[in-house]
Amino acid sequence: MNRSQLWIAFTTIVIKEVRRFMRIWSQTLLPPAITMTLYFVIFGNLVGSQIGSTHGVSYMQYIVPGLVMMAIITNSYSNVVSSFFGVKFQRSIEELLVSPVSHHVVLLGFVMGGVARGLLVAIIVTILSLFFTHLGIQHVGIVVFTAFVTAVLFSLGGFINAVYARTFDDVSIVPTFVLTPLTYLGGVFYSMDQLSPFWKTLSLINPIVYMVNAFRYGILGVSDVSVWASLGFISIFCVAMYFFAYRLLHNGTGMRA
Predict the structure, then answer these.
(1) pLDDT digit string, tens, across residues 116-171
(2) Is-contact 188 116, C-beta < 8 A?
(3) Spatial contact of 83 and 161, defined as CB atoms under 8 Å apart
(4) What are phi and psi of 54, to 5 degrees?
(5) How far apart are the C-alpha atoms of 230 and 214, rounded to whole Å?
(6) How many CB atoms lie within 10 A of CB 158?
(7) Torsion of CA 219, 221, 227, 230, to 10 degrees
(8) Exposed site from 35, 70, 103, 168, fewest CB < 10 Å?
(9) Are 211 and 236 in contact (CB under 8 A)?
(10) pTM of the predicted model as reported, rounded to 2 decimal places
(11) Cβ neighbours of residue 90 under 8 Å, at least 6 residues apart?
(12) DSSP secondary structure letter of residue 195
């Protein structure tokens, strides 16, 4: 296939993915908006009024970047894992695999669909946050890069989960028992300076800590860890995940539900 045909195949997959989650917006876009609004009210207003400031900013401002990052992580992941497992379950993935379309195109198409949903929800959550606090962006490039690469990373994670999943129950195992604990322990609601040395050191193992802090630095200019180390870590992990996911797709691993 020439470049024009590959581009058509890629955009077709992406448009299909976007239409899929937009068609059921009440299940894909509305719930995270309501959930994050409750976080703003309960943690930002009620709890935050008792805490005061953190790193020189109000508690509400401090948690907003973490909540936006949480929205990106959960929605980009869930979009790809549900979509790709769906095409596996319906056996329509076999049509893609036997077609002349490059496996890179197939993988990138599903990933960009997850990125689109993750970033769209992030925009919605950010707009909602403006009803509760004032936000300014300190470093636009870092904000855009961190949001995009994180969405790509967890879209790839959702793809890998879908490849290995055998039942619909398998799809929910990683989000429930891995993503949720890591996200809540990733510095979304607290600064690592508030932790004891032991727990602070242990937190450095959590990859979401670096994503949240890099994004927070881009918006507020404050971070608990090195920003450049965070960006480097996210980028390297993203590249590694991509090649692993491509390898699974290329080898046909787990393509039968």
Answers:
(1) 999 999 999 999 999 988 888 999 999 999 999 999 999 999 999 999 998 888 88
(2) no
(3) no
(4) -135, 125
(5) 6
(6) 31
(7) -30
(8) 168
(9) no
(10) 0.93
(11) none
(12) S
